[in-house]
Amino acid sequence: MTMLDRPLLAEQEAATYAGWFACLAEPARVKLLHTVATASGEITVGELTHLPGVSQSPCSHHIRKLAEVGFVRSRKEGTAGVWRDTVFVERRNQTV
Fold it and tell me: What is 24-92 written as a DSSP string?
């Protein structure tokens, strides 16, 4: 069997991988993803804005983009009408 005899990557899988790579083309997102992935638990967007060069609005935008492709999940947590974003990486059992 030669390399060309192997099945090609399905279009949907290729599109998924392309979306991941496009998302990670922004260095700030790679840094944020690394920070979230290596955190001992959940981490708030407010905590992420304490990183050098990260302000709230761009941080929220980047986290949303990471969530769109499934790298992180976010949830709102309300206390006395005050909401905060909490971001965490979902540990997956699958390999790419």
Answer: TTSHHHHHHHHHHHHSSS-EEHHHHTTSTT--HHHHHHHHHHHHHTTS-EEEEEEETTEEEEEEEPPP-
* Terminal C-alpha separation, the chain: 23
The pLDDT tens digits of the residues spanning 43-53 come to: 888 888 888 88
Compute the distance between CA of residue 3 and CA of residue 17 in angstroms, rounded to an integer.
Answer: 20
Assign residue 23 the CATH number of its domain. 1.10.10.10
Count of structural domains within the chain: 1
Q: Is residue 65 part of a domain?
A: yes
Residue stretches of the chain with pLDDT short of 50: 79-85, 91-96
CA distance 47 to 4: 49
Q: Looking at residue 85, what is its pLDDT?
A: 46
